[in-house]
């Protein structure tokens, strides 16, 4: 579905670049779906890294 929507967006536009970025990295961006216990974000890691 996302690929079909990308084809409707003008090449070179910011939206087209954003969609291409997401589609190229789709597997990595959706990996958390394989594990129901995995958080969708990494805010806790960011918080810990900044708490030193």
From TrEMBL:
Pfam families: DDE_Tnp_IS66. Residues 4-46 form the Transposase IS66 central domain. It comes from the Bacteria. InterPro entries: Transposase_IS66_central. This is Putative transposase. It comes from Castellaniella defragrans (strain DSM 12143 / CCUG 39792 / 65Phen) (Alcaligenes defragrans).
């Amino acid at each position: 579905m996302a690929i079909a929507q990308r084809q409707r967006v003008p090449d070179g536009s910011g939206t087209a670049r954003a969609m291409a970025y997401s589609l190229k990295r789709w597997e990595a961006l959706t990996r958390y779906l394989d594990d129901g216990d995995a958080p969708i974000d990494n805010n806790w890691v960011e918080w810990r890294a900044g708490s030193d």
